[in-house]
From TrEMBL:
Residues 12-145 form the HTH marR-type domain. It comes from Parerythrobacter jejuensis. GO terms for biological process: response to stress. The lineage of its organism: Bacteria, Pseudomonadati, Pseudomonadota, Alphaproteobacteria, Sphingomonadales. It comes from the Bacteria. GO terms for molecular function: DNA binding; DNA-binding transcription factor activity. This is MarR family transcriptional regulator.
Length: 165
């Protein structure tokens, strides 16, 4: 720390760092529930949680919905499939991809974990009033939208540079 301790280090003020630390702390609390009981990794639970609400999806759709990279999605899906928690069936509209869905056993685990995860969420949000919770959700949604907009602009600029270069 600097000689002037009244100013926190820059990293503590850096929003991506704060979000990452908060995300890891929150995910870690919930992960304790399903890792010990069901031996699931965070990436595997994310896939199961999305499939629990969305039914069958392709790996590309899962990657988009979880913001996980394609390799991590593929690895998680294979691990879940080997344990009998998800199944694959060919995508009728695209022969190169498959639809991934929870099996009955996977859905049973999802149904067991969700109330526990919601309970932890409630404990985490307990210090906040309803209005603060709504503001937090709104701010997070706006941050995601801003990040997507910046990402689209950056990708577009890189594409233009590549075609002109």
């Amino acid at each position: 720390m600097s000689a002037d301790d009244s100013h926190p280090p820059v990293l503590a003020e850096f929003l991506p760092y704060q979000l990452s630390i908060a995300s890891n702390a929150v995910s870690g609390r919930i992960a304790e529930l399903y890792q010990a009981r069901f031996e699931l990794k965070i990436s595997e639970w994310r896939i199961m949680a999305v499939l629990g609400e969305a039914q069958a999806l392709t790996q590309r759709e899962l990657a988009a919905m979880t913001l996980m990279d394609k390799v991590a999605v593929n690895r998680a899906c294979k691990a879940l499939e080997s344990r009998g928690f998800v199944s694959r069936r060919p995508n009728a509209s695209d022969g190169r991809s498959h639809h991934i869905a929870l099996t009955d056993e996977g859905r049973e685990i999802y149904v067991q974990i969700m109330p526990l995860a919601r309970d932890v969420e409630g404990q985490l949000l307990e210090p906040f009033g309803e209005e603060e919770r709504a503001v937090l959700r709104d701010l997070l949604a706006r941050l995601r939208a801003a990040a997507q907009t910046i990402g689209a602009q950056t990708t577009g600029a890189q594409t233009i540079e590549a075609t002109q270069g």
